[in-house]
Amino acid sequence: MSTNTTAAAGLHALFGGTFDPIHYGHLRPVEALAQEVGLNQVTLLPNHVPPHRPQPEANAQQRLKMVELAIAGNPLFAVDDRELHRTTPSYTVETLEAIRQERGPHQPLAFIIGQDSLLSLHKWQRWQDLLSLCHLLVLARPGYDDRMETPALQRWLDTHRVSDPAALHSRPHGSLYLADTPLLEISATEIRERRHQGASCDDLLPRPVQRYIELQGLYR
Questions:
Q1: Per DSSP, which regions of the chain are E strands?
Q2: Which of 43, 145, 153, 188 has the fewest CB atoms within 10 Å of its CB?
Q3: Which HAMAP family does this entry report, sorted A to Z (predicted)?
């Protein structure tokens, strides 16, 4: 069962992904980000049909269950399963438009992405509309460039970038924040490959998620 949570007071953040499976590389940097910028809640948005990557190995219900197991008992996190009910690609801008309409124009709202996604953001559907709907919070990722692909994209980043988290709380949208979060070299691809090889994943994801993967026979 999923939890659609009404926004708490202050800045509310959203974090999307296929979560195939969810792992510490998702959770720990977001927990550090919450400390850094003062987030009371982060809503995880599992994708159904991701437009920019291969389709997930686990089905929608399995991935939702893994997210719920990973965040059980952690008040920072909630989960919103709206994208899993779509049969069309999950475009972030459309999800954000719907959430913005629900929350109203004044709620400070942020969407969390990784440095890898920032560098390819100009390939996203209607990417230039994103900052009219939310702030962007960027998690550090190991091995990725810290400069945008073109001077025009770098100017866009420099124009919107803020270094003081207070700016994220005082405005509903429009700013971009590069977070100083830990660099964890964990990927869902690595976890799936380890499972395919019969290797241990104990240090990569929460134990309840690992137990569920084993029970469901996923990533064999």
A1: 12-17, 42-46, 77-79, 109-114, 135-139, 176-178
A2: 145
A3: NaMN_adenylyltr (MF_00244)
Residues 55-83 pLDDT 10s: 889 999 999 999 999 999 999 999 999 99
pLDDT digits (tens, 9 = 90+) for 126-169: 999 999 999 999 998 878 888 899 999 999 999 999 999 999 99
Q: What are phi and psi of 57, to 5 degrees?
A: -75, -45
Do 207 and 27 contact (CB within 8 A), yes or no?
A: no
Give the type of residue at 88: T
Decide if 189 contacts 219 (C-beta within 8 A): no
- Percent with pLDDT over 90 in the chain: 80
Percent helix, strand, coil in the chain, to 5, is: 40, 15, 45
Sort residue 10 into left (φ over 0), alpha (ψ -120 to 50) or beta: left
pLDDT at site 141: 83
> Per the structure block, which two tokens stand in for 140?
């550090």
Name 139's bridge partners: 114
Q: Which pLDDT value is given to residue 213?
A: 96
DSSP 102-127: HH-SSS-EEEEEEHHHHHTGGGSTTG
Question: What would the CATH number be for the domain defined by 12-185?
Answer: 3.40.50.620
